[in-house]
TrEMBL record:
It comes from the Eukaryota. Keywords: Carbohydrate metabolism, Glycoprotein, Golgi apparatus, Membrane, Signal-anchor, Transferase, Transmembrane, Transmembrane helix. Belongs to the sulfotransferase 2 family. This is Carbohydrate sulfotransferase. GO terms for cellular component: Golgi membrane. Its EC number is 2.8.2.-. It is found in: Golgi apparatus membrane.
C-alpha cells in the first residue's frame, strides 16, 4: 500500500509539473502579447569560442536563442523549470577592421550621416506617412485587385515567408527584395542581430561582412524558420512580432528592377543562372537545339540570352506552371505581402541614401553607416533603350504582370513605353 501511495504521489507530482509548465507558457504568451517588446526586451545570446572564420549561430542551437526562446526551451525540456541563476551574457562588439581611410572616402563622396536637417526630417516623415496611407487605401479598395490580395496572413504558406528577416535584439523585421540594395540591408541586419561573427566577436561594421556570407540563409532568422523553433506557437508569435516590431522594406521601379536583374544574371558569367534559366531560354526562344553546358563556353561561342528572350520567358504561361518566378524578378507583393503586413517604413532605391539615413535614425541605430550605393546602378533613364526592341504588345502584357507593384508603391504607369 505504501508503494502504491508513493507511485500515486509521483504521478500527481509529474502531472502538476506538466500543468504548471503549460500554464507558464500560456502566461508568457499573454504577457508578451499585452505588454510588448518595450518590457520584454529580447537579447540574442552569442557566446561562442573564438574561431578563425566567420561563424553563424546555428539554427536550433541554444546559443542562438533569445532570452524568451531560452525560457520556453528550458521550461519545456526540464521538469524542474528554468534555473533562475542562469543569465544571458552580451557579447562585446568587435571594432571595425576596415581602415579609417575608407570611412573618410565615404564622407567625402557624400555619405556622412552625422548632420540632420530638421525640415528634411519632417519632410521625410510626411513622405513615409503618405506611402503608408497609399498602401492602406489600395489594400482596402475593392476595385483594385491582384492575385493573393484578399487572403489573410494565416493563408500565406510558410515557404512564402522566407523574405522576412527578424532582428529580436532591436525589434525589427525587414522584407528583402533582390535588386533593391538587399545585400547591404542584409549586412545591416546581421550587424543589428549579431547573427554572424568573426573570431567569436559579432561584426560591428556592415562593410566588413564578406558578400559570400551575406546571402547564406543560415546568417538570417526568417519567418519561415519559426516552425522549427516554436512549433505550433509559430504563427501566433509571428503575429505578435508583426504587431510590436518595426517593419520595413525597400522597393524600386519594377521595369528598372527587371533590367537590373537581367544585367546581373545574364550579361555576367553566372553558371547557376545559365544552367537554370539561360539554357531553357536559348532552346525555347532562340531555336538552339544544342547549347554549351557552361556559361563561359556559351559566351565564347557568342551565345547569350537577349533581353527579348528574357521578356518572352516572363510572359510565357509555361514559366509559372513549372515553378514560381525566381526572387530576382518575382513581384514585390508576392514576397513581402503588403496587404497582409502593415509596414512602418517603405523606402525606395531612387532615394536610397536619404531613406536609409532616415530609417537608421528612426531605429535609433544611426551610429551605423549604411554602405554606399553603387554609382553604376541601372538608371531609370535607360528604360527606353532597353525596351526599344520589345514589341508594344509585350510591354503592355509585362505592365499587367507587374501592375500591382507599380500602383502599390507609387510608381507612375510608363505611358511612353505602352503607346504605339
Amino acid at each position: 500500500m505504501a508503494l502504491l501511495a508513493r507511485m500515486t504521489k509521483a504521478r500527481l507530482f509529474r502531472l502538476s509539473v506538466v500543468v504548471g509548465s503549460l500554464f507558464m507558457i500560456l502566461l508568457i504568451i499573454v504577457y508578451w502579447d499585452n505588454v510588448g517588446t518595450a518590457h520584454f526586451y529580447l537579447h540574442t545570446t552569442l557566446s561562442r569560442p573564438r574561431g578563425v572564420l566567420p561563424t553563424v549561430a546555428k539554427e536550433g542551437s541554444r546559443g542562438s536563442f533569445s532570452d524568451a526562446d531560452n525560457f520556453m526551451e528550458e521550461l519545456l525540456d526540464s521538469p524542474h523549470g528554468l534555473d533562475p541563476a542562469r543569465k544571458t551574457e552580451q557579447t562585446p562588439l568587435r571594432p571595425s577592421s576596415r581602415p579609417l581611410a575608407r570611412h573618410l572616402e565615404e564622407n567625402i563622396r557624400g555619405y556622412d550621416w552625422s548632420t540632420r536637417d530638421t525640415a528634411d526630417t519632417l519632410d521625410r516623415e510626411k513622405l513615409q506617412a503618405e506611402r503608408r496611407r497609399t498602401l492602406r487605401e489600395l489594400c482596402a479598395d475593392y476595385n483594385f485587385t491582384f492575385p493573393t490580395k484578399d487572403r489573410s496572413f494565416d493563408d500565406i504558406p510558410n515557404y512564402e515567408l522566407n523574405h522576412l528577416i527578424v532582428d529580436d535584439r532591436h525589434g525589427v523585421i525587414y522584407c528583402y527584395v533582390p535588386k533593391v540594395a538587399c545585400t547591404n540591408w542584409k549586412r545591416v541586419m546581421i550587424v543589428l542581430s549579431e547573427s554572424l561573427m568573426e573570431q567569436g566577436v559579432p561584426y560591428a561594421d556592415p562593410l566588413d561582412i564578406p558578400r559570400e556570407h551575406v546571402h547564406n540563409t543560415s546568417s538570417h532568422f526568417t519567418f519561415n524558420k519559426f516552425w522549427r523553433r516554436y512549433g505550433k506557437f509559430s504563427r501566433h508569435l509571428m503575429k505578435i512580432k508583426l504587431k510590436k516590431y518595426t517593419k520595413f522594406l525597400f522597393v524600386r521601379d519594377p521595369f528598372v528592377r527587371l533590367i537590373s536583374a537581367f544585367r546581373s544574371k545574364f550579361e555576367l558569367e553566372n553558371d547557376e543562372f545559365y544552367r537554370r534559366f539561360a539554357v531553357p531560354m536559348l532552346k525555347l526562344y532562340s531555336n538552339h537545339t544544342s547549347v554549351p553546358t557552361s556559361v563561359s563556353a556559351a559566351f565564347e561561342a557568342g551565345l547569350r540570352v537577349t533581353f527579348s528572350d528574357f521578356i518572352r520567358y516572363l510572359l510565357d504561361p509555361r514559366t509559372e506552371k513549372l515553378a514560381p518566378f525566381n526572387e530576382h524578378w518575382r513581384q514585390v507583393y508576392r514576397m513581402c505581402h503588403p496587404c497582409q503586413i502593415e509596414y512602418d517604413f517603405v523606402g525606395k532605391l531612387e532615394s536610397l541614401d536619404e531613406d536609409a539615413a532616415h530609417l537608421l535614425q528612426l531605429l535609433k541605430v544611426d551610429h551605423l553607416r549604411f554602405p554606399p550605393s553603387y554609382r553604376n546602378r541601372t538608371a531609370s533613364s535607360w528604360e527606353e533603350d532597353w525596351f526599344a526592341s520589345i514589341p508594344v504588345a509585350w510591354r503592355r502584357q509585362l505592365y499587367k504582370l507587374y501592375e500591382a507593384d507599380f500602383v502599390l508603391f507609387g510608381y507612375p504607369k510608363p505611358e511612353h513605353l505602352l503607346k504605339n
